[in-house]
Design brief:
The complex is a heterodimer of chains A (125) and B (131). Chain A is α+β, with helices and mostly antiparallel strands and 125 residues long. Chain A has 3 helices and 5 strands, in the order αββαβββα. Chain A has a single domain, classed as Beta-Lactamase (2-Layer Sandwich). Chain B has a 5-stranded antiparallel sheet with strand order 2-1-5-4-3, sandwiched between helices. Chain B starts with a helix and ends with a helix. Classes of the chains: A alpha+beta (125), B alpha+beta (131). Chains A and B meet through helix 2 of A and helix 3 of B. Chain A: This is Secreted protein.
């Protein structure tokens, strides 16, 4: 079933244990198409712009390595948080990624990754 | 150090921080160049056009009751032109390639124009005191 951006982000925030912020980001421009959660400790606009550089750097690195592959997701582990980046695969989602920040003490990484994949699969941009 | 030199330093810092910028320019709201750092030779005309665009932008925000003018982003086929208010008397114009990270550009230029606003305003304050 197709779900829209707001619903997908809300679902990520409510159904994924430990979620503290989520955003859908266009990495051709570095701007967020939608955000939920976050706050003064986690500015999702800054996260969108910054993680755009992360995704672009990885894409470029793979090009230089001659890898004919697609990025499925990127995990960044911090002391107290997990940051999960999942690239959209649908025909309308090209050039976009879902960004999810998790509280490391509450999150189940395997479960979160699985749930984010399901949400991404149903997302209609 | 003169205010122009300090503004120029801010612009250089901006160019170093944001990839894919092709030019940055600080001007007064009436179109005089304060400082610039760009490869393009048409600085004067860009400053003049900035002043004109700023005028339209200000009237637009006023007519639609959106408050003070903050910024204006124009996207062309070959890149972006962005204009940011830097206090009441100055403005920062940025040229960027199409692949620029606009989200990042906005964050960095907003910070930069706030600092340029402080520099320009403090100088204007000093000149007014001397009179």
């Amino acid at each position: 079933m197709a779900i829209n951006i707001e619903t997908a982000l809300k679902e990520a925030m409510t159904s994924i244990e430990g979620a503290i912020g989520a955003a859908l980001v266009d990495y051709t421009s570095g701007m967020a198409l939608g955000t939920v959660g976050g706050g003064k400790d986690l500015d999702l606009t800054v996260a969108a712009a910054g993680n755009t550089d992360v995704v672009r750097a990885k894409v470029r690195t793979m090009e230089m390595l001659g890898l004919q592959e697609e990025i499925e997701d990127i995990l960044i582990t911090l002391g107290t948080q997990y940051h999960l980046i999942r690239l959209l695969t649908g025909r309308n989602g090209k050039g976009m990624f879902l960004y999810l920040a998790l509280d490391r003490s509450r999150a189940n990484l395997a479960m979160a990754r699985h749930q984010l994949k399901t949400i991404e699969g149903g997302l209609e941009v | 150090m003169t205010v122009d030199a300090e503004v120029a330093k801010e612009l250089q810092r901006l160019r170093a921080r944001v990839p894919h910028l092709t030019g940055v320019l600080a001007a007064t709201v009436d179109g005089f160049v304060l400082a610039h750092d760009s490869a393009t030779p048409e600085t004067e005309s860009v400053a003049a056009l900035t002043a004109a665009a700023l005028g339209v932008g200000m009237r637009l925000t006023e007519a639609t009751a959106q408050g003070e003018f903050r910024e204006l982003l124009v996207r062309g086929e070959q890149g972006y032109v962005a204009i940011y208010a830097a206090g009441p008397s100055a403005v920062v114009t940025v040229l960027a390639e199409p692949r620029a990270n606009v989200g990042r550009l906005q964050l960095e230029v907003r910070r930069c124009s706030a600092r340029i606003a402080e520099l320009v305003e403090s100088t204007l304050g000093r000149t007014a005191e001397r009179r």
